[in-house]
Amino acid sequence: MSNKHSDQVFQISSLDVELQEFILQMDSKLTTHSTISRMTLLNFRILYMNHLLSKECSTSKQFNQKLKHRIRSEEVHIKNVNDKLKHKETFGQKVADDIAKFGGSWTFIIFFILVLAAWITLNTFPLFFEPFDKFPYILLNLALSCLAAIQAPIILMSQNRQTERDRIEADNDYEVNVKSEVEIHLLHEKLDYLMESKWQLLIELQQLQIELLQEITKHSDQEKN
Question: Domain residue spans in the chain?
């Protein structure tokens, strides 16, 4: 009874198409009309599972290498805006930035108010010496005009520097956004690959394992009988 069951044969055409193709590739002497024993079929199933796993490992490796290559091809060098501007900064630009910074501070406003108050007081009330710029304070008007004439181009130079900073920051933000979009796209691509390929592979391997267990169980029961 045991020999009868152990000698049970299966026609290759009755197997799954993928398994048929694998068996025919492994043994060119066989055809779809050939028959194989139970143990031979079990061995072929095990070999087929190993083949699927090996193939999937190779495919995953190639896919990961492809992703790495695409990420490197889209690599973005993030720039430090401050370092880049300091590298190009001249003495005149530094002075212009410092003057513009001081001119836009409360320190300058308070200092300017105190100077104006002192000038007007000293030239209106002769407390310590004879006023040198009596009303209508022509010298004061001239000094203020000169200050405004000098301060305007200095502020413009500082604004040009700020414009350059904004442009570099905008370029940097654009490159970072592009890199983020590329990485998100690649992540979606990898998830799609895992869902489509890996899921199908898991189902196929599970089916093979179930069939193997069934065959082994049958063989074990037959050996007992």
Answer: 2-73, 81-191
> Whole-model pTM above 0.70?
no
Q: Which two tokens stand for residue 161?
A: 């520097």
Say what the alpha-carbon torsion angle 122, 126, 130, 135 is, to the nearest 10 degrees: 60
Q: List, as one string, the DSSP characters of the chain.
A: -HHHHHT-EEEGGGS-HHHHHHHHHH-TT--TT-EEEHHHHHHHHHHHHHHHHHHHHHHHHHHHHHHHHHHHHT------HHHHHHHH--HHHHHHHHHHHHHTSHHHHHHHHHHHHHHHHHHHS-SSS--SS-TTTHHHHHHHHHHHHHHHHHHHHHHHHHHHHHHHHHHHHHHHHHHHHHHHHHHHHHHHHIIIIIHHHHHHHHHHHHHHHHHHHHHHHHHH-
List average pLDDT for each run of 10 residues in the chain, which is 225 residues long. Answer: 57 84 86 84 82 77 74 62 69 84 90 93 84 89 92 88 83 81 80 71 73 71 64
